[in-house]
Design a protein that fits this description.
Rossmann fold, 47% helix, 10 helices, seven-stranded mixed sheet
């Protein structure tokens, strides 16, 4: 399939270049950081907790290893990192959460007080880590917001060790009747509720647009193969509303 400009990466406006897109997304998430967790739980009807748990459980063979290093990329306020830590426990893997929003990371630090987790402010397209540093890289509902998906996959590949694994949890678009109901909620109801609770309109208009823009599973798996990953696979959650992409280096 020929790559088009539409699927290069996240954009809040079609005229943006990569840097402008990244800056706009950072500003958006910073603006909703104080109510980000509440909104996630309300808008997903708490199903997001199940998605994090299922994804973390998928990788418990890694997070239970005391010698393993794990990176949760685009970690937001830390919920995926906390789910991984719960699977591994205090004797498990060293877990680092990375995000480019200082406001989100501050929330993660507050929520994770007392837990041996590391938090790093970093750009997912230019990570401040050595080659082959991590045994696992995850990203929950953040990869979709990268300004360049292919560059993000290449950077994940770079920081993974040989035989290391990647898990990207993100939204999808269900098919059939469920898809119609979901799209109505996602495009009409969700933005209204999100704007009402947060007091900020931009992020909740951007959310459904970003999901529509994100590559279909088959295309995403093709991109992962192109980046060098093997054994690529996709598991849908909750009728395809979300799903996890998995692969090995």
């Amino acid at each position: 399939m020929t790559e088009t400009v539409k699927t290069v990466g996240a954009r809040t406006a079609e005229t943006q270049d990569q840097k402008a897109a990244a800056d706009a997304v950072r500003e958006m998430f910073t603006s909703i950081a104080p109510r980000y967790d509440l909104l996630n739980h309300v808008l997903s009807m708490n199903v997001d907790r199940l998605w994090w748990w299922r994804t973390a459980r998928r990788f418990r063979h890694i997070v239970r290893r005391g010698d393993a290093r794990v990176l949760d990329l685009c970690c937001g306020t830390g919920d995926m990192a906390f789910a991984l830590y719960k699977q591994g426990g205090p004797q498990g893997a060293t877990i680092t959460g990375a995000d480019f929003s200082a406001a989100m990371l501050e929330r993660a630090r507050m929520k994770g007080a007392g837990k041996p987790l590391e938090w790093v402010e970093a750009d997912a397209l230019q990570l401040p880590f050595d080659n082959a540093r991590f045994d696992l890289v995850t990203s929950a509902f953040g990869f979709r917001n990268l300004a360049n998906y292919d560059a993000g996959l290449r950077e994940i590949f770079r920081v993974l060790r040989a035989d290391g694994e990647v898990g990207i949890l993100d939204f999808g678009e269900p098919k059939g009747l469920m898809g119609k109901l979901y799209r109505f909620y996602f495009r009409r109801v969700l933005p209204a509720i999100g704007t009402m609770i947060s007091g900020v309109s931009g992020p909740y208009a951007y959310l459904p647009a970003s999901v529509a823009r994100f590559p279909e599973p088959a295309e995403m798996l093709r991109r992962m193969k192109t980046a060098g990953f093997r054994e690529v696979a996709y598991t849908p959650y909750t009728f395809g509303i979300a799903g996890v992409y998995w692969a090995k280096k």
